[in-house]
Specification:
Elements (H helix, E strand, L loop, with lengths): L2 H19 L15 E3 L8 E6 L4 E6 L2 E7 L12 E4 L2 E3 L3 E10 L4 E7 L9 E7 L3 E5 L2 E5 L12 E3 L1 H10 L5 E5 L1
Parallel strand pairs: 2-13, 11-12
Antiparallel strand pairs: 1-4, 2-3, 3-4, 5-13, 6-10, 7-8, 7-9, 10-11
Amino acid sequence: MNPGCFIRAAGASLIALIICGCETFPEGPFPRATEVGWWNDEGASGPAKIVVHVGEQKAYFYKGKTLIGETTVSTGKPGFSTPPGHYTVLSKDAGHVSTVFGDYVDDYGNVVRSNIDARKDRQPPGTHFDGARMPYAMFFRGGYAMHQGYVPPFAASHGCIRLPGQMAIRFFEEAPVGTPVTVRE
């Protein structure tokens, strides 16, 4: 390849990455979030259905037999796997805060111990529990839910299914209680 063409191609790729990456990647030293997905329910009708493929780290939303949305997700990490099976949306809570997972925080708001399981991790003296925010939570099995959260390109949750911001809202708004949820490996 001509060196000039290579430089122009590299520059164009960098510009495309910057422009396309503005809203899909969080800032910080942690792994980058994945792309969001798509949604098109124009002309679709029928009952809602959600299918999650753990191996693909994707969720699919159907109206009747029509696929109307697809999104990346982050399911349960090793030791906290998201259980495969057939479920239904049991309840919904747009402002859910975990009573189990979160951080131990001191009186000044400093995180003393992060990403804890309050059932297992001892609370350091002088701290209080600050539950993890799980907006747009749709519970489908006991303590398992689909909710808005950080979506790296791998399984990273404590068993829940995390969805990117706008997709979590779409799924929440379009899936009434009773919607079937299938989790496949």
